TrEMBL record:
This is Glutaminase. GO terms for biological process: glutamate biosynthetic process; L-glutamine catabolic process. Homotetramer. SUPFAM superfamilies: beta-lactamase/transpeptidase-like. The gene is glsA. Belongs to the glutaminase family. GO terms for molecular function: glutaminase activity. Substrate binds at residues 77, 128, 172, 179, 203, 255, 273. It comes from the Bacteria. Its EC number is 3.5.1.2. Keywords: Acetylation, Hydrolase. It holds the Pfam family Glutaminase.
Length: 319
């Protein structure tokens, strides 16, 4: 009788092997011409389209960086995951399940139809409606306190002080009529839990926080390490909340492009219309890529390809 148990699943590739894979991905996709900067937030149209950076943070805290890794881009919808984690810690994961729900919409990230078709809840915390509702769930007595809680939490995750990119914030705040409409509709049906304009404004601010690829990977690292930050060793999420976060990312992280991402890459991930994407390899690492041109769903074309390349190389598809 032979019995062999493979420990390979728990092993991490060497730093050199990860760096080589990231360099290969960068070289392979840097000239990719598909996609276009988002321009419904005017400041995003001005970000140089050729920027392309990749960073990996492993579950033991190693950092790998390739390409344009010093550029601070706005987190945009990547922020939605972190605020959801904060609210889960403050009010319990069930509060998200009950007040927002955890179903994919199959519709664009800023869909108004999506909040009209069901019971009035926002469907999930990763579309705009759900993210604005998540912000409204934070226990706060003032808009300043609501924002400070988010900002302090993001800084703790990053391990350093992050700054709002004021030009991006002002540009979105001047043009976010659609999000204000969504917040008002949710409030009207009892599915938003503070003043709708306050929730929209604080949400807009969190979307405008600037990060480098490595800072974003650092922020997401507890999700690849059972809720514990691999560098600060601080627990950000209860161990049983991590799979819940990853399940929502799998269903809704790419909006109406979530199915094809799961099909091709098979990793829970979240995108932002600024061009950033972070993907979680559970128990192993966070893979981040950033490049501004996005596809029809608002997801960075080069970043998707780079992450898929690295994930394929190490056979990290979770399905
Ligand atoms: O609310 C918005 O439209 C933006 N601040 C964020 C949207 C976004 O990042 C969509 N994702 N890819």
């Amino acid at each position: 009788i032979g019995l062999s148990i493979s420990l390979a699943a728990d092993e991490l590739p060497t730093k050199e092997a990860l760096k080589k894979a990231a360099e290969e991905a960068h070289a392979k996709f840097k000239d990719e011409k598909e996609g276009k900067n988002a321009d419904y937030i005017p400041a995003l149209a001005k970000v140089p389209s050729e920027l392309f950076g990749i960073a990996i943070v492993t579950a033991d805290g190693e950092v790998i960086e390739v390409g344009d890794v010093d550029y601070s881009f706005s987190m945009q919808s990547c922020s939605k995951v972190f605020t959801m984690c904060m609210v889960m810690e403050e009010s319990g994961a069930e509060a998200i399940f009950e007040k927002i729900n955890v179903e994919p919409t199959g519709m664009p990230f800023n869909s108004i139809k999506a909040i009209e078709h069901g019971d009035g809840r926002a469907d999930n915390p990763l579309v705009n409606a759900g993210a604005i509702a998540t912000v409204s769930m934070i226990k706060a007595d003032s808009p300043e306190q609501r924002w400070k809680k988010i900002s302090d939490y993001y800084n703790l995750l990053a391990g350093e002080e992050l700054k709002v990119l004021e030009d991006v914030y002002v540009s979105e705040a001047e043009t976010n009529f659609r999000n204000r409409g969504i917040a008002n509709v949710l409030f009207n049906s009892g599915n938003l839990f503070c003043d709708p304009l306050e929730a929209t404004d604080v949400y807009t601010r969190q979307c405008s926080v600037g990060v480098t690829t490595a800072q974003l990977a650092m922020m997401a690292s507890p999700l690849a390490n059972d809720g514990v930050h691999p560098v600060s060793k601080k627990t950000f999420l209860k161990e049983d909340e991590v799979p819940k976060v990853l399940s929502i990312m799998t269903m809704a992280g790419f909006y109406d492009g979530a199915g094809q991402w799961a099909w091709k890459t098979g990793l829970p991930a979240k995108t932002g219309v600024g061009g950033g994407i972070f993907a979680i390899v559970p128990g192993k690492m966070v893979i981040v890529a950033f490049s501004p041109p996005v596809d029809q769903y608002g997801n960075s074309v080069r970043a998707q390809k780079a992450i898929q390349y690295i994930a394929d190389k190490f056979e990290y598809n979770i399905f």
